[in-house]
Structures are given as C-alpha cells and as structure tokens.
Design a protein that fits this description.
about 80 residues, about 15% strand
C-alpha cells in the first residue's frame, strides 16, 4: 500500500484539485483509489482544460477523457 500526504480520490472535483495544487504549490497530484493505490496523476493542464466545462467535474471524468485520444477539449496535448 502506498502512502501519499497530498492526494486526490477519483470523486474529488476540479475545484478541490486546483485548490490543493495552489495550497501546496504542486503542478500535479496523485489520484488514489481503494486501499490507497495510485490510479493516475492529474496535472494543472488537465484541470485548466476542463475548468471551462465545469469546475465541479470529478477528476475521474477528466482522467477518463485523457485516456481517449479523440477528446482534445478535456485533455490538452503537452507542448
């Protein structure tokens, strides 16, 4: 089992994610599932790209959209 001091769970919102990123000055946060296992990473770019859709979207929805290469609105291409 992994231990993260600052982490999100899939049901956390983009609003919470951005707040945590700003509070702890982190460009990305781990997302942990059951038993504290890492399920992914959420970057500030992911949060900001989906912010205009709805700041209350769960991070799991944004992460799922980023797995789909045809969903550029929610998942930016790194530059």
């Amino acid at each position: 089992m992994s231990s993260f001091e600052v982490a999100l769970v899939p049901t956390d919102t983009l609003l919470r994610a951005l707040g945590m990123m700003e509070r702890y000055q982190l460009p990305l946060l781990p997302v942990v599932g059951e038993a504290g296992r890492l399920v992914g990473l959420l970057s500030r770019a992911h949060v900001m790209s989906a912010w205009g859709v709805d700041p209350l979207l769960p991070v799991s929805l944004v992460m799922a959209a980023c797995e789909q290469p045809l969903r550029p609105v929610l998942c930016p291409v790194p530059r």
